[in-house]
Hints:
Blueprint: H1 6-18, H2 21-28, H3 32-46, E1 51-52, E2 58-59, H4 61-84, E3 93-99, H5 101-113, E4 119-125, H6 132-136, E5 142-145, E6 154-168, H7 170-176, H8 183-186, E7 191-193, H9 200-208, E8 217-219, H10 223-231, E9 237-240, H11 241-250, E10 254-255, E11 262-271, H12 276-288
Parallel strand pairs: 3-4, 3-5, 7-8
Antiparallel strand pairs: 1-2, 5-11, 6-9, 6-10, 6-11
Amino acid sequence: MIDIHPDQARTLAAIVAHGSFEAAASHLSVTASAVSQRVRALEVAVGRPVLKRTRPIELTPHGHAVVRFARQLEMLSADLAEELQPGAQPSLARLTLVINSDSLHTWALPGLAAVADKVQLEILREDQDYSLELLRSGAAAAAITTTAKAAPGCSSRRLGVMRYLPVCTPDFAARWFPGGALAATLADAPVIIFDRKDDLQDRYLQGVSRKTLQPPRHYVPAAHEFGEAIRWGMGWGLLPEIEVSEELKRRTLVALDPAAHVDVPLHWQQWRHGSASLDEVAAAIQAAARPLR
C-alpha cells in the first residue's frame, strides 16, 4: 500500500497552482528546500516521478493522481470541519468546474446560481470534447463532457442532448441560398466558427456533401458574440435549439434545412470521492439540464 502524506500531496498541488517551487514555498510559508524535500519524499513513496522539471512544470500521470487526491482531501476536510463544528460559521468550499460555453450561455448558469451561497466556484470554459483532460489532470473537480465512460477516479451521469440547428438571417438566406442550402452554395457562403476546436459546422457540412467543403470562415470565440455574428448576417452557423426556438418562430432567424440538426450528448463527470458541496453542485446541474433532450 502506498502511503501518501497529505503535506506532500498539498505541496505538489501548490506547485501546480502557483507554477514553481519558489512560488509554492511562499504560498505554504516554507522554504524552497522544504518543498524540494517533500517532492523527493513523495516520489520515493510513489516509486515514480510525479512531475517533469520543465518550464512550465508538467505533471506525470502519477502526479495528476496525487494532485487529484490533494484536492479531494481539501474538500473532505471542509466537510469534516462542518460536521465537527455544526454551529460554527462554515468556510465556503472552493470548486473548479469545466463547462462549455454553450451550456453556460443557455442552461447551466441558473443551476450554479442556486448553490452560489454554499460554494465558491471557479468556472473554466472549455469545449465539451476537450474538458475531460482538465478533470483527469486534477485541475477541476467536475466537468461537462461528451464522454459517457467515467474517467479514472470519477463517476459519470447523463445530462441529456444539446441539439444544434444550422441557422442564418432571412436576408443571408435570400442572398446565399436562393435555391436552398446545397453543397454548391454552402461551399461559398461564409460560416461562423467558434474557435479552432469547434467542428460542429464541419460535421453539418459533411452530412450535406461527400466532399470536404472549405467555405470562408469567421472565428468568433464567445457564445453571445457567436450568436450575434449570425444575427448580424456575417454568416451562418449552428446554435442551440433552446436558444433559437423563439427566433425561428418569429422568423428573425431561419433554418438552412428544417430537418437538419447536429446532436451533442452531454455528461457530468466528477471525482468519485468528492464532497457534500460537489454533490450539491451536481444535483443543481442535473436539475438545470432538464430542458435538454
